[in-house]
User: Fold these one by one.
Assistant:
Number 1:
Amino acid sequence: MRKENCFYVGTIVNKFSFKGEVLVKLDTDEPELFLEMESVFIDLGKKLIPFFIEKSQLHKSMLLRLKIEDIDDEAAADAIMKKELYLPLSFLPELEGNKFYFHEVIGFTMIDDQYGDIGSVTAINDSTTQALFEVEKDGKQILIPLNDHFIKKVDRNNKTIEINTPDGLIDLYLS
């Protein structure tokens, strides 16, 4: 399995018991969605390796306690400590309306009320305080805050996102 065909679930942050159980800090608002996982991919040495899950349960707020097959002692648990977990993109529930997964809108055309076609979404930068659409138009990069108030319509069929940005925002990049 290739990482680009998967989504990030969380990171193994701690051992739970001497029997190899681990705690995973999940990257989600809905941790209960991950209770029924049968398997997971763990990023080991730049490769995603599949592991079967014997048991899982929520532990405190956003932690998932996992018993992974063949991880039966502290040494085995140490070997996967701080490793990232992934699942195939096909496991994501479909979103509707203006809700979307970041990977889903890459390549969509961004259409602004005032400027029309302002380019193609090349990435979503979520390393900043506020996530940003990275849009490319004629070799120029335009950064648009990912803000629900700006997004008018996400059209999956036509691969477009209609937006209404504040006056002057697009001018910063096109002038």
Number 2:
Amino acid sequence: MLPLIDLKPLLAHARDPATVAALDHALQEYGCCYLQGHGIAQSCIDAAQAAARAFFAQSDSYKLQYAIAQAPRHAGYVPFSEKGLYQDEQARMYEAFDLGLELTADDPDFLRGNIFYGPNTWPDQPGFRAAVYGYYEALSQLAQRLSGALEAALGLAPGNLQHLMRKPCSQLRLIHYPAQARAETQRTNMGAHTDYEFFTLLYQSSTGLQSMDPHGVWRDAPPLPGTLVMNVGDLAQVISGARYRSNPHRVLHSGKTRYSMPYFATFDYDTVLSPLCGPQAGQADAPRLHSGQHLEQQVVRDFAYLRAKRQLLADANPFLQEKIACPQ
């Protein structure tokens, strides 16, 4: 069983020592844990979940009006055909809806073509935007609190990480796994992968999720009432000097209908990260990672429409082919 961390003391005291220590231990030993007492009202979660279920129940023709491939930024409906490059994902078994920080059409980063900034794509479904973006904002506030706790766990000054999240590329994804005729427990609905961001906060409606701990053991992570699942992401591994390791996870094929809502907490696009603790902290030769570029490179692997766009650019300008070739 994965650790269960009660966040109520942390909500009362930003750096509650016992909660910080419990969170630090869980992320070191498992890379993943349950969070209860997180402060997000169940009514907020239920409203977002109801909006997601209602959207996915619509016809394909309705949903495709909001397809991410035609959207002005990387936000909108993700059909079953948008297959990623996970080696153990035999067939696309889910559809999704992606969104991020809501910004206006005159946002300078959006105008420069940054795919993670600008206006989201919103369906005309009554109440969808209010419910889903309300949940996004609640998760963003929780992510700030957890970032403060991780600052304390890593011995960093208050605000050391939080100030890097003023215009974050954090995304919320609504996912629908339709029921199948029978369960195939050796088959994955979503292939094994790590998350590309700082950490992930996940709501899920049914079983299927597995997380690999730092010892290489796959552990079931079924839903627990009133909790969210927290996963370590790639950027946490960099910042912590590998104190926390980005944990692979996957979703097995259970045959049941499954909904999930992962929120990928991350930093501003142009944040450059290096180890902030451990033996490499402050070293000139320490590894560095550009937060936004890393996210974009990985997202290209996940979306066929982005790979096609990159290829079109390469075909139009052969001199750029080597520079913008899709990652393999």
Number 3:
Amino acid sequence: MNITFKKNMPLALALSASAAIISIASPASAQSGYPNKPIRMVVPFQAGGATDVLARLVGQKLSAQMGQPVVIDNKAGAAGIIGTDAVAKAAPDGYTVMLGLSNSLMTNQFLYTKLPYDAQKDLAMVYRIAMAPLVLVVNPSVPAKTGPELMKYIAAQKGKVSYGSYGTGAYPHLAGAHMSLTQNADMVHVAYKGEAPMVQDLLAGQIQMAFASALQVKGHLDSGKLRAIGVSGDKRMAALPKVPTLVEQGLKDEAYRVTGWLAVAAPGATPQPIIDRLASEIQKAIRSPEVHERIVGMGFEVQDNGGPAAFNAAYRQELPIWYRLIKQSGAKLD
């Protein structure tokens, strides 16, 4: 047996080397020909929402650029967990990606004790397309007109002020809880099943304040039915350029600096060349005037350089902030 092995060793080595070359060349060849079939973009929310609209807008542009259809697949349910899990468990070949919110990619891991995936291991961050700053608005019955004035008001009206959110653990809840705690205001949190009913109750005076999207409240601000106090994040909104940030007004807590965001992610083991190609094409798409204009019109801030390196760096930086805000609020969803 030993003699036979030695005699055939050159042939065995040659076959082994050929197999190794084939195994290495095949993935490389597949990557160089990417994409050669339709790409599925999972949206972990229902059709018609802002995330879905953005996915269809970007997907259409990517399809034109890459020469393959980008098919939008809405997998709604469980605060984005169902759709996110489908992507985390998909083949890491670049043909299944997701466009999700910061809740599905970031905050759910702190709100749920058990998730079917590990967001930090099972998902690869591809491109952060847009930031989603919110505007803090009040019913006109509230006399405050600035951030500092509002802080004094809620402290003086301890236990009498209600604030709304479009879900437990969402940014409007976390920011409101932080505001209440720091001012010892004992505000009442009212969680709604969406932003629209929250705004309706704010207009009716059922709640006194809320963080909301420019898309939902701009018309009411223009008509005077609601009053803007300030904007979350470090930059003013392009959609509301005259409304100062809360940071500008001296409210520099991290709760008012962070904002939600919309981003593309892929299965965690997706090869880096494919991730880089996707990121490059997404950047090209959102830089086109028609797409850029639509995104800004939705009240979002376009990320001109939100590629893998920048996205991952920002993700690591924000991770402990969201953890602290959620822990402070006591929010749990399971």
Number 4:
Amino acid sequence: MDISLIIMGVGIIFIVLSFFFKDSSKQLEKDLEELSISIYQETNSMKRRLKIVEEELLLEPSFKVQSPKTQAKKDPMATFQQVAAQVKATQTVQQPMQRATTQPVHSILVSQVIELNKQGLSIEEISKRSTLTPEQIQGILSNGGV
């Protein structure tokens, strides 16, 4: 009889003590939810960046990818402009070879040039935002994108 009272007393003490301890599972659930949301956002961000890079690589097959120097978060438009500037620099180096064999302009760039022209941007501004030369842009606009 003494053992059963001792066990029952210890059980009651543990039940009373359990009310005073924090429930760590709620904090763990909250942390897990925040982690899953941040992973989802990072995944979407990386998909958008990858799509931009893939489009640029499809346009210039000899484009060399350089490792990023900073890990800071950047504006997607700024990243796009940097990639476009790198591709443009690569094209200017290869321009003597391309004059002999002119390559057709990719349809994505043609539609981009037409949309930027509809927005009222000048040929120089369109050239800065895309990987095309002003002559190529004038050719696209004069042909109507064909």
